[in-house]
Amino acid sequence: MNEKNIFILGIESSCDDTAASVLHNGKVLSNVIANQSIHEAYGGVVPELASRAHQQNIVPVVDQALKIAGISKSDLSAVAFTKGPGLMGSLLVGTSFAKSLAFGLNIPLIEVNHMQAHILAHFIEKEGYKKPDYPFLAMTISGGHTQIVRVNDAFDMEVIGETIDDAVGEAFDKSGKILGLGYPAGPEIDKRAKLGNPKAFHFTKPKVEGLNFSFSGLKTAILYFIKKQLKENPNFIQEHLNDICASIQYTIVGILMDKLKLAVKETGINRIAIGGGVSANSGVRNALINAEQKHDWKPFIPAFEFTTDNAAMIAIVGHLKYLKSDFASQNTMATARLKL
Question: Rounded to the nearest 10 degrees, how much is the dihedral formed by the CA atoms of 286, 288, 289, 295?
Answer without folding.
Answer: 130
